[in-house]
Give the backbone structure.
Amino acid sequence: MFSCIVDADVLKKLVKASSILVDEAKIRTSSEGISMRAVDSANVAMVSFELKRDAFELFEADESEIGVDLHRLEDVLELGKKGDKVSLSVMDDEKLRIKIRNLSYTLSLIDPSSMRRDPRVPNLEFSAEVWVNGMEVDRAIKAASKISDHIVLGVENEVFYMEAEGDTDSMRLELTKDELLELKGGNARSMFSLDYLSDMSKSFRTTDEVRIYLGTDYPVKITFPVTADGEVSYLLAPRIESE
Amino acid sequence: MRLNCIRCKGRELCHRENCPFRNVFRTMRNLRFERVIEAITPPSIFVGRFGYPKVSIGPLGVREESMMLEPPEKWGSLDIPDFLANRLSMIHGRTFRDVKARDRILESIQEVAMSIKPSDVEMEFEKEPRIREIFDEVIAPVGIAGDVKRLRLIDNPKIPKKVENLLSDDFRSEEWIKELYESGFSNYYIEQLLSSGVAGSERRRRLVPTRWAITATDDVLGRFLINKIRRYPEINEIRVFSGELMGNHFEIVLIPGRFYFELMEIWMPRDWLSATVIEIDRENERGKKEYSKLSGGYYAARLPVLEYLESQKRCASVIAIREIRPSYWAPLGVWVVREAVRKTMKERGKRFERIEDALEDLKSRLKTPESLWRDKIKFLKRRTLFDFS
């Protein structure tokens, strides 16, 4: 049994942030709120989100799992306008009822036991942490996409940089400690596929505070809030620089 | 075209002692044709792609039953010259139509396409049919063509009940392809139906050039199978399959993991002037966004591997290596690739614990030095999130 009312916009952000990596998601519900964790088919990237019960206008849930087709849910949520509330409920019939204003929609659920088990969370230790405006990161990613398939993210002597090298052109963005919201830890440098990062940056480009955790030839973790009581987190494996 | 033989077509520009084309063309040059030909069709039709949306369409037939080729599943048992001799003696009785046209002649051609038993056809030509070789990487060669004035099906076609039922339903082409495949029809039959313009929902039916229909069928079936396979449990050890057909050598490595398919094509040098050419394409379970740069061969190589995984009800990450040897001297169509992989997947696979051991094993069977291809395998460069904890 699950029933809630929440800002359509918040839910849409969570679903969009996840659907860039996976088609289906197993959403966990508990009395604390909802959460989800999934890796993409190549095991290269992970997305997780959490939305606490305080983010909801109404929230009633047992411990359970709901298997949803994210693209279909996204299609339904597209029907909502800014400021709309969406009400979700699951009864015993394995269907998700969605209501946006006077529009009701019933979506078939996927049996969670037929879905891939939740991935374990890799145990990672990062050497640097950067808090930065999402728009800056998005700009650098867009610039890099024009010249290359991959981008380097790093920290050197308290400067956060993003750089890419194409066959003939190159690009570099530098942000000093003063220009950042926060910079902790030491040096780091890893290369990532822009295929993944471009999709990810669409979810956080309007966010003021994006936290990036880095290491050397190491995965990156990117977390950002979607509302006061909800957060999305990405993990992305690096590429080998010699490629 | 990568092959010089195709340009020369038996003019012996290479001064090779044994010109592969000579015998084939000697037979063909001696063929004389009448205005009216009674031919027997396997049954088979061909739809050209040039001039689209006005395309050539018509049955393919031979004059004597003894010249008739077996169904494509068995073509691989011939050697290349025999296959070519057979295939090039086929007569394409063609007529030109808009892809959306409907008339009596088209209906007869469609009946040929749907029929599952050989049938006699009488073709009256505008003028005597002529040698007109069509060589292509995707479609099987066609030798002789002429414009038909009149076309008559002598036998009644034998059309499967399943197809009759589909004709009256309003399914999309993709559904047709899946339905027919699940009922046990071969990809060769399906692609022929698709190109004849009987498949799909009624309003949208149209002729589809053979070349496009072949790859569309391979791709639709492939995506259909991937969608099932990605939910199966993973295989529990590394398996290596090895096989060859008409100079196309395959090494196929199945690795426990989520669905992933990578095809590496190694084109061996054909003379001392040319170099080895290596090309790669790949996809994961979310599929490809664009047409493969390896063209129809990619989809043809993928299908039999998926058929194997489906038969085992198992999921795997796949690295497929296709080494194209100089003995594959004429492009015969992607059926060679498909049947080569089908044959390969029927072999007894070897089992390994580590991917390094599997590569060590297969490198001895490839003629191309390891240093040229090993570093190009994208799968080996991947780092996953779980390599770090």
User: Anything to note?
Assistant: The CA atoms of residues 140 and 332 of chain B lie 5 Å apart. Residues 4-153 of chain B form one domain. The interface with chain A takes residues 230-231, 257-260, 284-286, 381-389 of chain B (CB under 8 Å). The radius of gyration of chain B is 22 Å.
